[in-house]
Design a protein that fits this description.
The chain has about 170 residues and is of the alpha/beta class. The protein has helices spanning about 65-75, 80-100, 115-120, 120-130, 155-160; strands at about 1-5, 10, 15-20, 45, 50-55, 105-110, 145-150, 165.
Length: about 170
C-alpha cells in the first residue's frame, strides 16, 4: 500500500491496512479525522503482528526555507520536537483506543529528514515523555507503546527494506 506525505512516498508492501490518519480536508473520506484539536500522526499501518504509528517531518524538503530548517533544528535541540511527537502519539492512541483499534502492539516510527547525527537521542526523548515515563508499572497488563524509533530516509530504508520510502519529483 502506497502512502504519500507531501513528496515522500512510502510503500508498505505487507500491510493489512494503511491509512492517512491526519486526513482533515474532506469530511466525506472514510478516514476523515474530525477532531482538529487533537494531534495526530501522519499514517497508521496495520501489519499482521503489530500496528505502526508513523510521523513524518521533512525539514530537508527541497522547497524548505533555510529559516524553517533553523527553527526545526532549534526545536530538536530544545526538546520541543520530542514533546510534539509525544503529543501526536498520545492523541492518536486515544483516538484509536476509542475506536477499539488498539488490539495489537503499537510501534511508533518517525521519519525525520535530517542527518543521523542531528537526530541524536530523539527516540529516547520521545519515549521518556510517553506513559509510563520510564517508571516501573507492575500492574499494567499492556504497554501504551512498544517502542519508539526515529530514522532518516537512509536509515529507514536500511532498517525497513520491505517498506521503502523515496522522494518523488512532481512531473
Amino acid at each position: 500500500m502506497i502512502l504519500i506525505e507531501r513528496d515522500l512516498e512510502f510503500n508498505f508492501t505487507d500491510a493489512i491496512d494503511a491509512i492517512v490518519f491526519d486526513e482533515m480536508s474532506d469530511k466525506k473520506l472514510p478516514n476523515y479525522h474530525g477532531i482538529g484539536a487533537m494531534h495526530r500522526v501522519d499514517f497508521i499501518v496495520e501489519l499482521e503482528p503489530a500496528i505502526l504509528f508513523v510521523e513524518v517531518k521533512d525539514p530537508n524538503n527541497p522547497n524548505a526555507r533555510e529559516k524553517q530548517k533553523r527553527k526545526f533544528l532549534r526545536e530538536v535541540n530544545e526538546g520541543k520536537l520530542s514533546t510534539t511527537f509525544a503529543s501526536k502519539y498520545l492523541d492518536s492512541f486515544i483516538y484509536r483506543w476509542a475506536e477499539n483499534k488498539t488490539n495489537k502492539p503499537i510501534h511508533y516510527i518517525n521519519l525525520v529528514t535530517l542527518e543521523e547525527e542531528l537526530l541524536g537521542n530523539l527516540s529516547d526523548e520521545i519515549t521518556a515523555k510517553l506513559p509510563p515515563m520510564n517508571h516501573d508499572t507492575p500492574r499494567w497488563q499492556r504497554q501504551v507503546v512498544n517502542n519508539v524509533q526515529v530514522f532518516n530516509i537512509e536509515s529507514w530504508n536500511e532498517n525497513f527494506p520491505k517498506w521503502p520510502v523515496r522522494r518523488v519529483v512532481p512531473e
